Write the structure tokens for this entry.
Amino acid sequence: MKKFLVVAMMAFGLAVNAQEGQLNVGGTIGLPVGDADEANVTGAIEANYLFDIAENFKVGPSVSYLHFQGEGADVAFIPVAAAARYSFADKFSVGADLGYGIGVRPSADKEGGFYYRALVGYQVTEKITLHVDYSATNVSRTATLGPISVDANVNYATFGIGGTYSFSL
């Protein structure tokens, strides 16, 4: 919970200091990898608000809903993160999100963890960008086997393809 508060305070601080920005909303569909192999498909919706920090570089808060679905799998997170995007060519950009993924599904196991995302985007029009991305939430768990407790990390990850629509505000 402390990590969530730190990320939320960073996002709020960025929002207070910047004067104009760009709201981006979009979605992604993907294939699960890592420890999420029991899922068949992943889906995500996202929104971020990015501020111009320097020429071709934007940062801001991001929130999304990431769902892993499949037979025997139904896991979901709400990642709250700081996002950064850099345009390195006329229509190409790279980006990264870092934050905390709040576990919301299943109801009996609402653990969260460190969230990260890397993406490469192509600007189709002034308002529409298509991207490929890799995102993951790393959840620390403790398994008890009789008198022995073992700490383990579970990495819910996905490779995806998606798009965003931008609103200048």
